[in-house]
Amino acid sequence: MATLSGLEAVDFVPTLITPKSAVTKATGSITLYEPPSCLADQKSLSPWSLLVRAALKVKSIPYHTSLVRISTLPSFGPSIGAPPTGSNADGSPKYTFPIIKDDHHAHGEKGTGTVVADSLAILHYLDKTYPSSHGLFPPPTRATPDASSLVTLIAHTLGHGSPLYNTLLAPEWKRHMPLAEYDYWEAQLKKGGGLLGHAVDPATWRAPEEGSAEFEAVIQKTMVGLGQILQALGNNEWFAEGHNPTYPDFALLAHLEMVRLWRPEVLERLFASGAKDGVDGERLRRYLTSGEKLVVFVPEEKGTLS
C-alpha cells in the first residue's frame, strides 16, 4: 500500500507473476491511474481505462497501473497535478479516471512528468508525444461516421447511462466494488450521483434476471445501437480498413470487455443474437476475440516503442 499526500493509492504488485523488487515503478514508464474492483488482480471496470490501456499497447509504450480508490479522487487528482475534466454541481472541480503520468525514459532520465486526464485527451497526448506508424485515430473516410460519432454511439449503446448499463449491469455493483467503497457508493446512489446520475435505493435496487421480459426488453434496445455499430464496421477487421485498431476500436473492445467483467451472461446473450435481432452476434464475438488482448488487464507491460 502506498500513500501520496495522505491519500490511499495502491501500486499494484503482481506478486504471483513477478517479485516485488522486479516491478518497474513510476520512473521509466507511464503510470495509468485507475479505480480498483474486487475482481481478480483488482482489475478496473472502467471502459475508459480499458480504452487507454489498448492505446498504450498499440503504441507499445511501457506502463504500469496504480489503483486509486474513487472516493479519494477529489483530493488525489490535484495532489498529483491532474487537470479537472469538468465541474461538479456545486461548481467545484471534477476529477475523473483515467489519468496518466508520463515518466517514460524516452523523454530523458525523468520523462516529461506530464499528467493528463480524460481518455480522449490522453490519446491525443500519446499520439503527439510518441509518433509512430501506429496512429491512434482513423483517417477521415466518407464510408463510415467520424471517430467521435462512433465512440459516442458505442458509449450510448453499452456504456454509462445506456439501458444495458443502467438496468443490467450497474445494479450488480456490490459484487464488484471494493468493500471499503461501499459507504461511498451507497451515498452516491442515494443522492443521484455516481453510476447512474439519478437516485436509487441501494437496498432494493436489483437487476432483472436473465431471460425475464425486462431483461429481454433491454437486450432488444441494445440491438438497435449494435446494429448501427456493426454496419459501420462492415466486413473490415477494424473500423479503419487496412489500418491497426484505432480510437473507435479501443472504445468498442473496452465496452464489450466491460460488459463481460460486470456480467458475462449479458455478453453471451449479445453474442447469441441473430437475424431476428438484426445483429450478427457471432461477428461481434469474433471481433472481441481478435482484439481482446488489447484490453485484458496487465498491471505492468514493459513494451517496446514502435
TrEMBL record:
Domain GST N-terminal: 36-134
PROSITE patterns noted in UniProt: GST_NTER
Signal sequence bounds: none
Pfam families linked to this entry: GST_N_2
Superkingdom classification of source: Eukaryota
Protein name in the entry: GST N-terminal domain-containing protein
UniProt organism field: Pterulicium gracile
